[in-house]
Design a protein that fits this description.
- The protein is α+β, with helices and mostly antiparallel strands and 117 residues long.
- It has helices at 32-43, 86-97; strands at 5-11, 16-21, 48-55, 104-108.
- The protein has a four-stranded mixed sheet, covered by helices on one side.
- Strand 1 and strand 2 form a beta hairpin.
């Protein structure tokens, strides 16, 4: 991951729901401010055991999950991360998915491949 994040939701029954969050909208895919709503919809009423956020944490401002970079009008300042904010990302992910913050972990894995077991 060079500028993206993955969100993996581990369900109590052993299933998983996952998403790839790109800083900029990929044609035909969700913007970053729509990713978590889509994940929450797919979780439905199933109980969540854990949520793992991995990738280029330092490239992401927590607000990108609520206001995509593309949604700012011309000339309006887009917030830029000044340092990695794993706690801020965890808080936003927990809030948007409606899960306790303690169930969300964030791991910085820039410039690399990921495997989810």
């Amino acid at each position: 991951m060079t500028s993206c994040l993955t969100v993996t939701v581990r369900l109590e029954g052993g299933g998983k729901v996952g998403a790839h969050a790109s800083l900029f909208q990929v044609p035909g895919e969700y913007r970053s401010d729509r990713i978590l709503a889509a994940v929450k919809q797919r979780i439905g009423v199933r109980a969540v055991r854990a949520v793992e956020v991995r990738g280029a944490v330092g490239a992401w401002h927590p607000s990108y999950f609520t206001t995509a970079i593309e949604s700012y009008p011309e000339g309006e300042q887009v917030p830029l991360p000044t340092e990695p904010d794993p706690k801020g990302l965890a808080r936003v992910v927990a809030d948007e998915l409606g899960v306790p913050a303690g169930k969300v972990t964030v791991e910085d894995l820039p410039d690399g491949d990921q495997t989810v077991n």
